[in-house]
Design a protein that fits this description.
about 280 residues, alpha/beta, Rossmann fold, seven-stranded mixed beta sheet, three-stranded antiparallel beta sheet, 8 helices, about 25% strand, binds S-adenosylmethionine
């Protein structure tokens, strides 16, 4: 899951390593985004997992900071015996959970640093979904080879070309295949990334799609994250041949005290932080 306001702290070693010098709002194309995201997630992988690894678990499928688990939500349907692709898997905890319940899961991610953690956890748990390093906009899999694709905040928020990712996911799915993915809820974009009362003031237009970009001293992107409106997601899904089946906006559970970047109980009580799109390929 993302933490767009890197300036809010917790990413000092990645920022130091990458020479992050400031924040910009400007367009970033595919090539620059891939270079920035690979470098960012490589540099931040250790800190990310040190901070969030306990919450995410070794072989668990947690969709979002609200703590919604696949074992309770059943958004993927029956996965036993199904071929499932996890897109932007990070340390692949979801793919290991899928493996533990009988799915034939494959996990892919852009970052070798994240996949190194995935490999260590595969060995530690004995649950070993294959790990593949690739860009979600160019999936290295044959067409029509998966029953289900899923992603918990992987790849989609970090790639400029939604159409390319959705078209690739559609290509590797079998007819009537399911695609379920979680992203930051689009309405969060209008607020500052602050989990407290300061995060309740509107500072951005919902309609401004200019990405959030961190840059080094030369102006090259070191981190990039994209905003889309709900309508943008629906149009891109339909364009790739998907039918939207449900849009899940998990509520913040009572007594859940987690603070993860801009997510936390104070704002979680008032408005959604996560949007989970559940779609199927139109037949
Ligand atoms: C916030 S993590 C989500 C992973 C995992 N579900 C979790 O909650 O930790 C985002 C992941 O997306 C991956 N990612 C970013 N851009 C990508 C791309 N273009 N293709 C594939 N993966 C990408 C990153 O490397 C990172 O591992």
């Amino acid at each position: 899951m993302s933490d767009p306001d890197q300036a809010a702290g917790g990413h000092e070693s990645a920022e130091r390593l990458l020479g992050t010098a400031g924040v910009a709002r400007r367009p970033v194309g595919h090539a620059e985004a891939v270079v920035a995201s690979r470098a960012w997630w490589d540099a931040d992988a250790d800190d990310y997992l040190a901070e969030h690894g306990d919450f995410l678990g070794d072989a668990d499928f947690v969709w979002c900071p609200e703590g919604l688990r696949e074992q309770d939500a059943h958004l993927l349907g029956d996965v036993a015996g199904k071929r499932v692709l996890e897109v932007g898997c990070g340390a692949a905890m979801c793919a290991r959970w899928l493996t533990s319940v009988g799915a034939d899961a494959v996990a892919m991610d852009l970052s070798g640093g994240m996949l190194r953690h995935a490999d260590e956890a595969n060995r530690r748990t004995g649950l070993k979904p294959p790990l593949v390093q690739a860009d979600a906009a160019r999936l290295p899999f044959a067409s029509g080879t998966f029953d289900i694709a899923c992603s918990a905040f992987g790849a989609v928020p970090f790639t400029p070309d939604l159409d390319a990712v959705f078209t690739e996911v559609a290509r590797v799915l079998r007819p009537a295949g399911r695609w379920v993915f979680a992203v930051t809820h689009p309405m969060r974009w209008i607020f500052p990334d602050d989990p407290g009362p300061a995060g309740l003031r509107v500072i951005n237009s919902y309609f401004d799609r200019t990405p959030y970009v961190e840059i080094d001293a030369q102006g090259q992107a070191t981190y990039v994250e994209y905003h889309r409106t709900l309508g943008d997601y629906i149009r891109a899904l339909r364009g790739a041949g998907f039918v939207l089946d449900d849009l899940v906006e998990p509520e913040w559970p009572e007594g859940h005290e987690l603070v993860w970047g801009q997510w936390g109980p104070e704002r979680g009580e008032l408005f959604p932080g996560t949007a989970i799109f559940r779609c199927e390929l139109a037949t």
